[in-house]
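Researcher: Quick test of sequence recovery. Tokens follow.
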């Protein structure tokens, strides 16, 4: 059954689980990152894989020089239909996906693609020639600054070989370099994040210099993650940054010191569906599908589990409960709420039917299970419903 997404007036009228979005907090987060990009002297190309919403993208990208970043071709089509023309598809491209890219470009999209693989260049070029129509695909070379997920190392000859191969291949064009310091999420201190941010910047700038010294084009020098965007001391030599989680925020970013609890714009609205006094747990109807099973922040901070219980609270956004109740375990549609050691669960205060909100560990994963956002104001009134893009 599809739930009617029309705006409702009261939180208690919403079905559960639902995804709540505080518009005022979202606005603050977008403005703060715009100011940060200005301070660092770079364009902001927000990564929309977190929000997957055209409305959020317009708020995040307003008055910015850069376009947006996407992580799926479905997102690229969706955001094009939402009015965005300048996009970076930040996942390694394969020949099979070029026809879909070409179709979007034929509609007027400016879409930059990503690669770190020398062996795929001839295949991409052959597919471009097969597609025909004088189409030219712009490629960014992904650089590894220590994350060890994808990217070319600055050591050895791979970078130059890749740059030269792209430049010489029919149907392809070298646009620049891109780095993502995903390993910033594993840092323990602000100082460690600052070090990773500098390594990310240095890798991008060194790669660009290496290409330019050989007479190759490198207009784009792109870096990005929310932790490094927030904590970088300098982005000298960089042209743009691509943070994404900052628009909504989550407990992982709080744990990293990139955001505070008042910056968290999203929570999952849930209903108490049972009491298990023998196991000392309160059951809610938000489980692994509604919250995700990502425990990122919980790896470093005790008693976070799969999310912290909170409540909408005026201008502060979502405020944590003083007893810091948390979702200790999840099944598909059940969340099991526990109290920290030494505290008792407030069964009387949370009877069956009571509503609670849960702050997510990793908002990208949590939001992915929901069709859209129920937008609420500072008074806790539901004022709108914003659909999200889904699929690949």
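Model:
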């Amino acid at each position: 059954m599809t739930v009617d997404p029309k705006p409702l007036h009261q939180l208690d009228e919403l079905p559960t689980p639902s995804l709540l979005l505080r518009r005022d907090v979202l606005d603050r987060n977008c403005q703060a990152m715009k100011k940060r990009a200005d301070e660092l002297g770079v364009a902001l190309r927000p990564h929309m894989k977190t929000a997957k919403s055209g409305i959020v993208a317009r708020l995040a990208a307003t008055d910015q020089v850069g376009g947006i970043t996407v992580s799926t071709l479905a997102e690229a089509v969706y955001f094009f239909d939402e009015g965005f023309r300048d996009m970076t598809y930040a996942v390694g491209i394969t020949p099979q996906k070029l026809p879909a890219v070409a179709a979007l470009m034929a509609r007027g999209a400016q879409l930059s693609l990503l690669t770190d693989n020398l062996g795929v260049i001839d295949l991409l070029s052959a597919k471009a020639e097969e597609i025909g129509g004088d189409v030219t695909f712009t490629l960014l070379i992904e650089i590894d600054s220590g994350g060890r997920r994808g990217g070319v190392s600055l050591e050895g000859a791979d970078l130059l070989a890749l740059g030269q191969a792209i430049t010489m291949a029919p149907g392809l064009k070298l646009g620049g370099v891109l780095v993502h310091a995903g390993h910033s999420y594993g840092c323990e201190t602000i100082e460690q994040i600052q070090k990773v941010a500098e390594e990310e910047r240095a890798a991008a700038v060194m790669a660009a210099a290496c290409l330019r010294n050989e007479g190759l084009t490198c207009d784009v020098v792109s870096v990005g993650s929310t932790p490094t965007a927030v904590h970088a001391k300098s982005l000298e030599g960089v042209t743009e940054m691509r943070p994404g989680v900052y628009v909504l925020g989550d407990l992982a970013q709080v744990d990293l010191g990139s955001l505070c609890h008042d910056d968290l714009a999203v929570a999952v609205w849930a209903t108490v569906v049972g009491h298990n006094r023998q196991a000392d747990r309160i059951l809610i109807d938000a489980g692994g599908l509604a919250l995700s099973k990502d425990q990122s922040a919980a790896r470093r901070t005790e008693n976070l589990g799969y999310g912290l219980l909170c409540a909408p609270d005026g201008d502060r956004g979502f405020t944590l409960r003083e007893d810091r109740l948390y979702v200790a375990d999840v099944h598909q549609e059940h969340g099991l709420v526990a109290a920290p050691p030494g505290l008792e669960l407030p069964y009387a205060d949370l009877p069956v039917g009571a509503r609670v909100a849960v702050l997510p560990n990793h908002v990208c994963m949590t939001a992915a299970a929901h069709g859209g956002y129920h937008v609420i104001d500072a008074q806790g009134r539901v004022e709108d419903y914003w659909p999200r893009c889904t699929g690949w």
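The mean pLDDT is 93.
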